[in-house]
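Pilot study result, target chain (147 residues):
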Amino acid sequence: MEQTPRHSVSVAGIILDADEQHVLLIQRRDNGHWEPPGGILELHETIEDGLRREMKEETGLDVTVRHLTGVYKNLQRGIVALVYRCDADGQPVTETEEAARIAWKPLTALDDLMAPAYAIRVTDTLNQSRAPTRAHDGVTLMTVSGP
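Predicted structure:
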């Protein structure tokens, strides 16, 4: 009997400033990459509780989860990411145990800061009528379903 492949489920939050010209990003300590804050869900958590926990751990912020903005699968690592639009209560800290830096970055700089597989998560949040489903190899987008 074949064993069913295992997947991890991650969550990430997209927080935009009041003018929707900047997005809150973290620079990860483990690889130095800029990404929206988030991480792997724990087994006992609801999706929204896990997202709130990850956002607090990575930015110091309490957030309100608004709505799902996209579903993404890293085909290389078997990670399914659920990305949500969030609102922040207050301002983030400047660094955490997991984030070397936390900063508001202009939307015009996304392509220079992040791999396409992560930049599209912000772009999808801005330009959507429904949440897309996308696959990637950790960097490059491979398939698109949705808007």
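One observation from the pilot: The beta strands are 8-14, 22-28, 34-35, 38-40, 62-74, 79-89, 99-106, 133-136, 141-145. A full batch analysis is planned for the follow-on phase.
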